[in-house]
């Protein structure tokens, strides 16, 4: 389905980004990975599907590094057809104790990077009259939780940005949509599980159940593979007229 196309997935060395990158490669896309940590393992996991795989270590909080990453994708892959804005971080604290540096980092990585990659990718997508921008927002792009002011602000921003650019491209073959996962058991969430277990003196398993009970009626984590399949649908011809949506995959979280 995506043979000959190139997908760039930010923050794809782990969790949801890696899951989506694998699904896109399985459907024939060449993939540019990005992110920190286990970069070799991530590249090996995506290479298994036989497509061309690249990596760029741009820090999504730095616009000049984002520009270098997009130039790399243009030079090595002929541009980006599917842009998945996924890189993100979390910090949990009441607003009066929220460190300013954490606020700035969350807004830069979770929100402003989406603007920078998108503004750089759209011109070539317009020229080809085909493109897919998938922004990994969150249920926190639609509803709030306490102690997550920066994350909730950034993710609501991503949903608004998605709608605006979807309107700008509405008469073209370029679609722009957001995906809003609920709890997905990735390193980002495991940190919150660990904090809950430590604070309440409960086991890892009990902390996971407590998080799910609080927000996610299905009592099941969404998986990166399920999110990858949703991303594939949004890349398909069937989704050509899906524009500016914020699509939940949250076990009923936002239906409450
Ligand atoms: P994760 O921690 O497993 O992965 C985050 C990825 O982003 C990693 O590859 C990391 O290296 C990369 N990253 C972090 N800072 C970066 C930076 N400055 N520059 C470049 N890359 C950077 O987290 P995840 O849970 O897979 O989260 C992925 C996205 O999904 C995030 O935007 C997150 O907000 C969103 N999300 C996650 C959940 C969840 O429950 N896990 C729910 C809703 C939305």
Report on this structure.
Helix 1 (15-26) packs parallel to helix 2. It contains 8 helices and 7 strands; from the N terminus they run E-H-E-H-E-H-E-H-E-H-E-H-H-H-E. It has a 7-stranded parallel sheet, with helices on both faces. The protein has helices at residues 15-26, 39-47, 63-77, 100-128, 149-168, 187-200, 204-215, 224-235; strands at residues 6-9, 30-34, 53-56, 82-85, 131-136, 174-181, 246-249. The model has no long low-confidence stretch (mean pLDDT 98). Helix content is 48%, strand content 14%. The chain starts with 5 loop residues before the first strand and ends in a 7-residue tail after the last strand. The protein has 2 domains: 6-182 and 223-249, NAD(P)-binding Rossmann-like Domain (Rossmann fold, 3-Layer(aba) Sandwich); 184-221, no CATH class. Helix 1 (15-26) links the parallel strand 1 and strand 2 (30-34). By secondary structure, it is an alpha/beta fold. The structure holds nicotinamide-adenine-dinucleotide.
């Amino acid at each position: 389905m995506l043979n000959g196309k190139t997908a760039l997935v930010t923050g794809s060395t782990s969790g949801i980004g890696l899951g989506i990158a694998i699904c896109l490669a399985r459907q024939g896309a060449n993939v540019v990975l990005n992110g920190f940590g286990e970069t070799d393992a991530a590249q090996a996991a995506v290479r298994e599907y036989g497509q061309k795989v690249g990596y760029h270590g741009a820090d999504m909080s730095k616009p000049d590094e984002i520009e270098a990453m997009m130039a790399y994708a243009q030079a090595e892959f002929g541009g980006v057809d599917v842009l998945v804005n996924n890189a993100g971080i979390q910090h949990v604290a009441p607003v009066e104790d929220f460190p300013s540096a954490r606020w700035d980092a969350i807004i830069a990585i979770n929100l402003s990077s989406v603007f920078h990659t998108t503004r750089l990718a759209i011109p070539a997508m317009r020229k080809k009259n085909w493109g897919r921008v998938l922004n990994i927002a969150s249920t926190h792009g639609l509803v709030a939780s306490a102690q997550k002011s920066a994350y909730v602000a950034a993710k609501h921003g991503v949903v608004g940005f998605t709608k605006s650019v979807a309107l700008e491209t509405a008469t073209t073959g370029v679609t722009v949509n957001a995906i809003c996962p609920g709890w997905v058991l990735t390193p980002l969430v495991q940190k919150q599980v660990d904090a809950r277990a430590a604070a309440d003196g409960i086991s890892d398993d009990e902390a996971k159940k407590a998080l799910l009970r609080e927000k996610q009626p299905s009592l099941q984590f969404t998986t990166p593979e399920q999110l990858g399949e949703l991303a594939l649908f949004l890349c398909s011809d069937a989704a050509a007229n899906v524009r500016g949506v914020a699509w939940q995959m949250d076990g009923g979280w936002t239906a409450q």
